[in-house]
Write a structure and sequence with these properties.
The complex is a heterodimer of chains A (125) and B (388). Chain A has one domain: Response regulator (Rossmann fold). In chain A, 42% of the residues lie in helices and 19% in strands. Chain A has a 5-stranded parallel beta sheet, sandwiched between helices. In chain A, α2 runs parallel beside α3. Chain B has 13 helices and 12 strands. Classes of the chains: A alpha/beta (125), B alpha/beta (388). Chains A and B meet through α1 and α4 of A and α6 and α7 of B.
């Protein structure tokens, strides 16, 4: 799994730190952004291999970031995993099947699950 | 709550306003209405009438069509603007169809010609007063209902917001704990391992409570939608018994092993939701079973249904409580019940989820003789249930 770069986007420093620790242990390299605007700036600098994206964040929420990604042909193919505590994701995703989200996880999920999702995405590389 | 309903039968809203520029007639009105004990005000012209209408709440208005400063139909319109429930009767010495139509269009209830029988008017006034009181009461009830629905909506929203606020810190705590535990797995003495166990069990418990609260809010809003897939009830039951094993140990309750009879049977169900049903029922069973007792799950195969029985040798539930325990917020009284605690939504969620699956849940129990909770689920889901 090495050489894959994951961008973690979440406004909670603790959430970012826990995810970073779990993913670094699994061999990924990590970048972080604390809101949607910072995420877009980081993506413009260097395209990550996958993005973990929180929904409710200040400045720009996760779905707006997702939309910007899909609008840009250079960015559209980066897999996005939505991570949220919102609690209505299943219902929401059924309504918005057009969103083309690679996967979503509802907090609290065991950190091992995110490793599994990324393995699915990268095909056990 | 009783206040708006009472308002209609007394107070200023039962007053009658009479508008007529013929002074001699006012005495006639006064005599007949006064004798009936009705509260009557008089206005000699349109301007005076409007002033009175602005100040007081009138249930019934009798007005002459031809007033010095205002037409009767205009008065009717203005009065209805202030109180849409008011009953306006226009009276004229020269009745005509056109005049009647014009008045009705402006919101008058009735149109009458002079001369009139004063007794008829009194009867009419009484009917109008009754009618007004009924309409007022209905409006108050509608308002009350709308307010209740709004409060209920706000409550559901609040519950889901709070649950969201709880989920993020729980995620960070749980994640940090899981990562640390891997580091600490070896080289800890028994007490420290036990302390780690305490953190883990209680994080599990918090997760379950938060999950229940959120599911409850979703059930209330009607947004909990099952995702039907083929599942093995036997495997789900096994998983739930295993995941609750720390609770069994803590309470000194024995988990009866699952029989393998129906292990191959599958049904169409939402595995996460059925896991929640089993977790709530087995969790309850353990909580209400004294140390040394037993809790188990049985699965029975019927023609179109699979039935799960979650049984225990605990304190039992009195028959008069059976119909109430699935109601939201209901708590069985009694010292052991209180000691066990709980939010009073666990069984309501069980019932809600079972209903969404087109199944049934019921209890068989007597005080002191343990309980058997039956959950019967259809093997195949029809389209309607899926969209319910």
């Amino acid at each position: 799994m090495p050489d894959k770069k994951i961008l973690i986007v979440d406004d909670e420093p603790d959430v970012r730190f826990v995810l970073r620790t779990a993913l670094e242990r699994a061999g990924y390299s990590i970048d972080e952004a604390k809101d949607g605007l910072e995420a877009l700036a980081k993506i413009a600098q260097a395209l990550p291999d996958a993005i973990l994206l929180d929904v409710m964040m200040p400045k720009m929420d996760g779905f707006s970031v997702h939309q910007k990604l899909k609008e840009n042909p250079a960015w559209a193919s980066v897999p996005v995993v939505i991570i949220t505590g919102k609690g209505y994701m299943k219902e929401f995703m059924e309504l918005r099947q057009d969103l083309a989200v690679a996967a979503y996880l509802e907090k609290p999920f065991p950190v091992s699950m995110i490793i599994g999702k990324l393995q699915d995405i990268f095909g056990n590389g | 709550m009783a206040e708006p309903a009472n308002m209609s039968s007394k107070g200023s809203a039962s007053r009658i306003l009479i508008v007529d520029d013929e002074e001699s007639l006012i005495y006639v009105w006064q005599r007949f209405f006064g004798k009936e004990g009705m509260l009557v005000d008089f206005a000699g012209d349109g301007k005076q009438a409007l002033d009175l209408i602005k100040r007081g709440d009138y249930a019934v208005i009798f007005s002459d069509l031809n007033l010095p400063s205002l037409r009767g139909e205009e008065l009717a319109r203005l009065a209805r603007e202030r109180d849409p429930l008011v009953c306006v009767n226009v009276i004229t010495g020269a009745p005509s169809i056109e005049g009647a139509v014009a008045c009705m269009k402006m919101g008058a209830c009735d149109y009458m010609g002079k001369p009139f029988d004063p007794l008829n008017l009194v009867v009419k006034a009484r009917r109008c007063l009754q009618h007004y009181a009924q309409k007022k009461e209905m409006a108050a009830m509608k308002e009350e209902l709308a307010r209740y629905e709004e409060i209920n909506r706000l409550k559901s929203e609040f519950v889901s917001n709070v649950s969201h606020e709880l989920r993020t810190p729980l995620f960070s705590t749980r994640g940090a704990f899981d990562l640390l535990r891997v580091d600490l797995a070896s080289g800890l003495d028994q007490t420290r391992r036990k302390l780690l166990g305490v953190i883990e069990n209680n994080l599990d418990r918090l997760g379950q409570v938060i999950g229940n609260v959120l599911d409850f809010a979703k059930l209330e809003r009607g947004t909990l939608k099952p995702e039907f897939k083929s599942v093995s009830l036997h495997d789900l039951a096994q998983e739930v018994m295993e995941s609750l094993s720390p609770l069994f140990t803590q309470r000194g309750v024995v988990a009866a092993p699952l029989k393998r009879e129906a292990s191959g049977r599958r049904i169409e169900a939402d595995s996460g939701q059925i896991r929640q049903v089993l977790t709530n029922l087995v969790g309850n069973a353990v909580k209400f079973t004294p140390s040394g007792g037993r809790v188990g799950i049985e699965i029975r195969d019927h023609e179109a249904m699979l039935e799960m029985i979650i049984w225990d040798t605990g304190i039992g539930v009195a028959p008069q409580e059976h119909s109430k325990i699935f109601d939201r917020f209901y708590q069985v009284d009694g010292s052991l019940a209180r000691e066990a605690g709980g939010s009073g939504i666990g069984l309501a969620i069980v019932k809600g989820i079972v209903d969404l699956h087109g199944g049934a849940v019921w209890i068989e129990s007597k005080l002191g003789e343990g309980s058997r909770f039956h959950v019967s689920l259809p093997k195949v889901q029809t389209k309607e249930q899926g969209n319910a």
